[in-house]
Amino acid sequence: MNASPLPRNLTSYDFLKMAAVLLMIVDHLGFYFFPEQDWLRAIGRWCVPIWFFLVGYANSRSMNKELWISVLVLTVASIVAGQSIFPLNILATILIVRLTLNTLMDFAMENPRNFWSLCAVMMVLILPTIFLFEYGSEGFLLAMVGYLVRRKDKISGWLIDLFMLFAFLTFILAETVIFGFDRDMVILMSAGVIAVFIVLLYFQSEEFPKLTRTLPVYVTKSIQLFGRHTLLIYVGHLVLFKIIALALFSERFQLFNWSFF
């Protein structure tokens, strides 16, 4: 997930990934320890477009072994904690998106009919595919946002704006149905996702040498820690949360009492 060699200066990637990591931790705190607090899950939804955006925005579609190993580690951890194997974790979804994105986008960008047909198919497939891997084809639609923003100097602005509206509404609708959020939670989730989409629309790769020199070293290193070791943090905190939840909440997590779905 992280390119090498890495810049010494803070980058726009560092800040975006740090925000995604912190929001993700909030989301998982809600799932594992405070399931009755819907606002934690609603806020946690804000990070999802960021992760898939970065997949689509990246030039590389590499299938590095660390990502495969991480999918396996988290699957085993879920089995140990008595959870279901399916849907496969978001890292598996990222692998699927990386594998298919370029081929599908080559088809989509041939003409508007192909583009919107693909969008419609992906929207229809959300409900069946979310049972197989996290976020299902919803993840592909969000990755398309990154793909288009990366190429926005070559693509009509109206297409990106219209598609981002489509992707936003689809995401909000799907997450509302999946989580059963009430009106207040939908408003909270939507407000944050709108802000995230605006940031993503104007995102570009950039270094901040002046800011790097201005901030204390420990602040810079902390930001880079969250921004450049996302895979390790993702796997590590989830394994830790599963272990703690297994010890504290026997009614929800039982050792090796796993299922397929």
What features would you describe in this structure?
There is one protein chain. By secondary structure, the protein is an all-alpha fold. It has one domain. It contains 13 helices and two strands. It has a two-stranded antiparallel sheet with strand order 1-2. Helix 1 runs parallel beside helix 13, helix 4 packs across helix 5 and helix 5 crosses helix 8. The longest helix has 23 residues. The radius of gyration is 19 Å and the shape is globular. It starts with 9 loop residues before the first strand and ends in a 13-residue tail after the last helix. The mean pLDDT is 95.
Measured between the Cα atoms of the first and last residue, the distance is 28 Å
Shape: globular
Order of helices and strands: EHHHHHHHHHHEHHH
Question: Strand order within the widest sheet?
Answer: 1-2
Radius of gyration, Cα only, in angstroms? Answer: 19 Å
Q: How many strands, which pairing sense, and closed or not: the largest β-sheet?
A: 2 strands, antiparallel
Percent range for helical residues? Answer: over 70%
Please, how many helices? 13
What number of domains?
1
Q: Give the tally of β-strands.
A: 2
- Derived structural class: mainly alpha
